[in-house]
Request: fold
Amino acid sequence: MSGVAVVIVRADGSVDYIDLPDARELAGDLGAVTRSRASHIVPCSLLLRLAFRGLRSLVADESRLASWSRGWRCLWRVEIVGGPSFGAYADRAAAIAAEVDWLNSERLKVVTHN
Reply:
């Protein structure tokens, strides 16, 4: 279910979704949004991770430096806020796909049937 936009409307009217472009579009008309970080995708190497975090603390997420850092050729891991860290993914996109799968199944409790 990698990268699938899932929007859940709860009985109390609250809406949960992973901030992917398709889900953002689906949930966009539902009112005010409160965002909270669910995870971080960071390099596996301690030295690269320290450099990545240091750089990202200094520049805006939309900056050229931030964009450059997301393209580093290294192994990437997922660090769930208040949860596990996992993976050694060959590229950042694979780590993001694993992150979305984990968040859908563990945080949003989305059940898929194969």
Q: What stands out?
A: The chain has a mean pLDDT of 83. The chain is about 40% helix and 20% strand. The longest strand covers residues 39-43.
